[in-house]
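Reminder to self: tokens first, then the designed residues, so the page reads top to bottom the way the pipeline ran.
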């Protein structure tokens, strides 16, 4: 678990079109990471 203010580790994921998007693609920009529970699980 990261503490508040800790930088997120580098990662990449596919976007809605299957293109790879990495956190480093947004270096120098403000980014909001929004995590939500997997569909069908208790939130």
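Designed residues (43 positions):
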């Amino acid at each position: 678990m990261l503490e508040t203010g800790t930088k997120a580790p580098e990662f990449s994921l596919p976007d809605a079109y299957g293109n790879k998007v990495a956190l480093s693609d947004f270096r120098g920009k403000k980014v909001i990471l929004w995590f939500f529970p997997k569909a069908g699980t208790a939130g």
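The mean pLDDT is 86.
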